[in-house]
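FAQ: What does a ligand-bound record look like?

Like this one, built around nicotinamide-adenine-dinucleotide:
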Amino acid sequence: MRRVSVLGATGSIGRNTLDVIRTLGGRRAFRVVALTGAGNVEALAASALEFGAEIAVTADPARLDDLRAALEGSGVEAAAGPAALVEAASRPADWVMAAIVGSAGLAPTLAAAGTGATIALANKECLVSAGGLFLSTAKAAGARVIPVDSEHSAIFQCLDANAGAAPVRFILTASGGPFRDWPLEKMRDVTPKAAAAHPNWDMGIKISIDSASMFNKALEMIEARWLFGATAETLEVVVHPQSVIHSAVAYADGSMLAQLGSPDMRTAIGYALTFPERSELPVAPLDLVALGRLDFSAPDETRFPAIRLARAAMDRSELAGAALNAAKEAALGAFIAGRIGFLDMARVVEIVLDRLATGEPARDLEDVFAMDREARRLAEAEMAESAA
Ligand code: NAD
Ligand code: MG
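The answer part, i.e. the structure of the complex:
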């Protein structure tokens, strides 16, 4: 029986992953090793009981007693805290879904890759902040990395169908988010609630706001650099409001291959789980006639500077990505807390990137964490100064 773990099991990707596992036979077909979550221990415990997990881990030590109580007598182990997350992620498994949000996913995802398990990678921050380190760890351990981000899953699927030839161009599609056509003036006063309402995808709050600012696309550009060797030159971002073409690759003979589907993450999750096979999933089939048309345009980098910032970081070392992601996380946190405006997020990230020397590769995770801390410190200082 295949042993599977789901890191970030209570989130949007995690719940969809458990749904796919359930659809494909649940505990009759899979042995669930570790499930992890953060504050929502009720949901974590319920899933651990449903799937008969070996261990359930909450990131929050203050919730360990609640988790223990919910699992009492079931035989499911309970644990808490960052070290326990890494320990659970290191347990032998054949397949690990990495779906913790943000840089908190770095250490557990790296630990899972170090075991040689197949990594279904949703936690894009791991590649953005520590791409070289993560890939060399995975390679040394013989771990296969299968992208789950819908765009990268699309490219992965296109490459799989065309093994042998290298693309000359990567086309990363972007919905453009809820403010795609808004004038700059109006974007200044956007609230976190409005920014979190994505037109096509139902996702966690952070990635939803990142989609509205196009910082999500910025992270995905750097993600494509590590996964596929895309460069600032060969990568094109195209705004495609319907989110039907998930991404595409172009070949030297003029041919372009794209992957299309309903905006439902279960397709990419299922593909990562059963690769190279495809499984039957309850995903709405695409009806091209009902869709009628698909639209495309270039992103406006004046209103969405994140794209420009990512292009600058793409061809630099992974520490540039670590700085970009950490500054972005700090600015995003401040925006959610109402301390800065929507457009201030890109301004803060740009200032941090300009000030930090990020030409070096990361030798180890400590280098990444040091850059992460420094970028957050600078971002906080900048935000405090402009608030004063
Ligand atoms: P989410 O906020 O819905 O869920 C995040 C998960 O991480 C939850 O299980 C939460 O408990 C856990 N978590 C939060 N803080 C933690 C911490 N400090 N330590 C350990 N665990 C913690 O997020 P999501 O939308 O499911 O996104 C997860 C990852 O997948 C992100 O990296 C995101 O960029 C990526 N992704 C998501 C989607 C999507 O459709 N939601 C699509 C592509 C990529
Ligand atoms: Mg995506």
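Follow-up question: can I read anything off the structure? Yes, for example: The pocket of nicotinamide-adenine-dinucleotide (ligand 1) is lined by residues 8-14, 37-38, 59, 85, 99-101, 104, 122-125, 149, 201, 203-204, 207, 265 (CB under 6 Å).
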